[in-house]
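Slide 14.
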Amino acid sequence: MHQTFKTALVQMSMSADKTVNLRRGAEYIEQAADAGAQLVCLPELFLSPYFCQREDSALFDLAEEYPKSETISILRAVAKKTKTVVIAPIFERRAPGIYHNSAAILDADGEIAGFYRKMHIPDDPAFYEKYYFTPGDLGFKAFDTKVGRIATLICWDQWYPEGARLAALHGAVIVFYPTAIGWHPDEKERYGTAQHDAWRTVQRGHAVANGVYVAATNRTGLETDPKTGTQIDFWGQSFIADPQGVLLAEASVSSEEIIYADVDTKHLETIRRNWPFLRDRRIDAYGDITKRFIETA
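Slide 15: predicted structure.
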């Protein structure tokens, strides 16, 4: 495992043309590799505009079978060419009526190092993901890659400490969150600052509580659903935090860009020696964590 490796997050906006989005994603990976990145993460559902703004059965046609996905095949070739580890989100068709929001971890030799299906599925106005996605059933894992042991979760997972904890317990040194999150334009002025601050704060908390690096890569731009006219203003601001929650890199709100940071496993070791949260966990006392809610008498 590398003691230090350079990580890159691609923040981009999406066109209505899947081929264009895939080509641009591949180009961004190559650009990041040219800048020295050894691991590159693309945003959630990067092959299309965020289609979950409405419930429409025709949109299931956007999905691809795994591992026969054309997207995965192309990005495996890019990973091998650039000798980079790539996190490649896809809309997965598993079987008729069973679809997942997923991500493949592609190793630097082009082989598939791991696969993750989004576990927590939201259902909010213009985020109708429960209509499209079956909850994941692969659990929270970490995967060995050329640069080290890593984990990826996806978007709504980022609000849940249990997922980050289990990824860390599986040995991940960095947890990725490919993301598609933004404001409803009519709520942005009133709630926007608080919403964004909560999103960033909770993930920095995962970094601190688990002694891991955390990286969230978002899309950017205003997307209007062509049938309903609803809009989401994606807030960008992708970031990478270290095991103390320190922001090492952060993107702008509205620009397409790549951000970079070094993941230093020696620094991680130092932080865990001095903040030994994993050592001091009371695993004998956490049995109730698996309950939905604890009733009081």
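Speaker note: The two ends are 51 Å apart (CA to CA).
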